[in-house]
Amino acid sequence: MPGIGGFAFVMGLISGYPVGAKIVADFREKGLVTQDEGERLLAFTNNSGPLFILSSVGIALFGDTKTGLLLLGTHILACITVGIILARFSKRNKFYNSYDTRTNLLKNFSHSSNLKSRCNTTENSQNITLKNLGEVLTTSINSSISTILLIGGFVVIFSVIISILNQTNILNNLSTLLYPILNFLNIDLEFAKPLLSGILELTNGVNLVANIPTKLISQNIVLSAFLLGFGGFSVLLQVYSIVSKTDLSMKKYLVGKFLQGIIAGIYTFLALKFLPFLNLDIVQTSSLLDGSSNLNNAFNGIYSFFYDFGIFVIAIILVIFIFKVFNNVYKLIKEN
After folding, report:
1. What is the mean pLDDT of residues 250-259?
2. CA-CA distance, 83 to 118, in Å (whole number)?
């Protein structure tokens, strides 16, 4: 990826849906990224914002700050994983990422008259002075208002659609299609209807999933992680309306968001499974263990040993991974 993709990635994480898609579409219109780069950027830079995950989902719905931090952490890890996966399957070659090749590629793009006019407009708009400051602020505010109205409009439309499907029992009938998957994953069937609602529209779906009463609260959290990663068809149409003026395809975006939802759910499940301080499940205590303190102490000792050993192994792996990342970054900087 070109270095400018980092801006889309960071802003997409900070601002939430669909800011990442809007930035990538602007990059493509200005010729700053190729079609393949734009489609891959689109798939992992358009994410849920930390304000929504921490406050709306973590605190308001689950009533727990740790849950919000867990969902945010797995959400970020999942989108990074999707970016790495898509990079492995991209059609680029070794010479494509070199600085000289990219420079020549952008020069070839600049021969287009339409692109020249866009680049000239961009260059002029970057020279902000006191004279054109009001014009720049007006343009920025108008763009922000249109994006907010776009998001709100899609949320309202899909909320109405979900209400109609619910009143006509169509949603109940469609939710039965998820029963085999939920049975295979050993998830309560009551989550079928809220999960389908979340696939259609994120906000309503996460609200319904979080409010399903269950002793295994980890199921609510894992399914919420999946919905946050996938985003729902409401966000999909928001992105489509933004990139429709470009030549970017939605295929990689749809595959990438589905992968991100699954990977986020897996990461969340593993965190809840192997990090006991994150597990909020209400577990019934066995009478056999209650009556046998020796067996309980032995089990706790074995568990403590493997837990400490696992943390030690994970720490070593993280150190090696960070060292390799910095080593590769240093090599790239040195080559350029």
Report:
1. 90
2. 28
Range of the domain at 109: 5-284
CA atoms of 333 and 245, how far apart (whole Å):
35
Banded pLDDT at 80 (limits 50, 70, 90)? very high
Residue 15 parent element (H or E): helix 5-15
Q: What is the sign, positive or negative, of the torsion defined by CA atoms of 69, 70, 71, 75?
A: positive
Instruction: Select the more confidently predicted residue: 319 or 242.
Output: 242
Rounded to whole angstroms, the Cα distance separating 222 from 83 reads: 21
Predicted confidence (pLDDT) per residue in 280-320, tens digit? 665 443 333 344 444 445 445 555 555 556 665 676 676 67
- Using the predicted structure, report yes or no on whether residue 75 has a pLDDT greater than 90: yes
Looking at the structure, tell me whether residues 290 and 278 fall in a common domain.
Answer: no
Residues 177 and 73 in one domain: yes
For residue 107, pLDDT over 60 is answered with no
Structure tokens at 313: 């192994």
pLDDT of 264 strictly over 80: yes
- Pick from 266, 206, 208: nearest CA to 68: 206
Q: Please, are residues 44 and 229 in contact by the beta-carbon 8 Å criterion?
A: no
Residues 133 and 224 in one domain: yes
Q: In the numeric block, which tokens belong to residue 109? A: 């793009």
